[in-house]
Design a protein that fits this description.
The complex is a heterodimer. By secondary structure, chain A is an all-beta fold. In chain A, the strands form two sheets. In chain A, strands 2, 4, 5, 9, 10 and 11 form a six-stranded mixed β-sheet that branches. Chain A has a five-stranded antiparallel β-sheet with strand order 1-3-8-7-6, with no helix packed on it. In chain A, β9 and β10 form a beta hairpin. Chain A is globular and about 45 Å long. The chains are: A mainly beta, B mainly beta. Chains A and B meet through β4, β5 and β9 of A and β9 and β10 of B.
Chain lengths: 111, 118
């Protein structure tokens, strides 16, 4: 069974600070996704990473896929209150038909 | 990408009743999934909705409690039967990216249906 762990579980920071969220597994994934979910809404896809070592940037967000495709990180620069939410990572197995979700990191950015 | 619409977005339900959630996608997709997210928790896969055949349920979920329909490649329903307060959750429809060969294996979510059972 493939499992994903995320750390930290909770994070509360001040506006303007930087932060990194980690997603780790002992399993290899064909791709990994990051989602942000706001209260009462469905998760919204932020990025998909596919290649080991891949780095993708989305404005102030930087995503990295580990070389071995077992882990990923999300770095936010100069966090804003609008970044507040639940950040979920999800990995797809090699067949692309099974998606495993991490437990999530709940981020709160205080003005 | 895919645009997914779910109805209802929210509902308050009486114990013992059943509610059907609808999921409509703007393009034909092979894989459709139903997830449950209990308060403060991550996502748990209920089942994969298969077009033209019975849904494939995950461990701990059964057809009698969560019957699923998938009449075509753009639509599915999930029914939560004989509800109890423990069924209070967000229920999420998701689909595999129809362009997965371009973007890698990715799934998209609807807005969710927030059910509160009283």
């Amino acid at each position: 069974t493939q499992l994903l762990e995320q750390s930290p579980q909770f994070l509360s920071i001040q506006e303007g600070e930087n932060l990194t969220v980690y997603c780790n597994s002992s399993s290899v994934f064909s791709s990994l996704q990051w989602y942000r979910q706001e209260p009462g809404e469905g998760p919204v896809l932020l990025v998909t990473v596919v290649t080991g070592g891949e780095v993708k940037k989305l404005k102030r967000l930087t995503f990295q896929f580990g070389d071995a495709r077992k882990d990923s990180s999300l770095h936010i620069t100069a966090a804003q209150p609008g970044d507040t939410g639940l950040y979920l990572c999800a990995g797809a197995d090699n067949y692309g038909q099974n998606f495993v979700f991490g437990p999530g990191t709940r981020l709160s950015v205080l003005p | 990408s895919a645009v997914i619409s779910q109805k209802p977005s929210r509902d308050i339900c009486q114990r013992g009743t059943s509610l059907t959630i609808q999921c409509q996608v703007d393009s034909q997709v092979t894989m459709m999934f139903w997830y449950r997210q209990q308060p403060g928790q991550s996502l748990t896969l209920i089942a994969t909705a298969n077009q033209g055949s019975e849904a494939t349920y995950e461990s701990g979920f059964v057809i009698d409690k969560f019957p699923i329909s998938r009449p075509n490649l753009t639509f599915s329903t999930l029914t939560v039967s004989n509800m109890s307060p423990e069924d209070s959750s967000i229920y999420l429809c998701s689909v595999e990216d129809p362009d997965k060969t371009i973007s890698g294996n990715t799934i998209y979510f609807g807005e969710g249906s927030w059910l509160t059972v009283v």
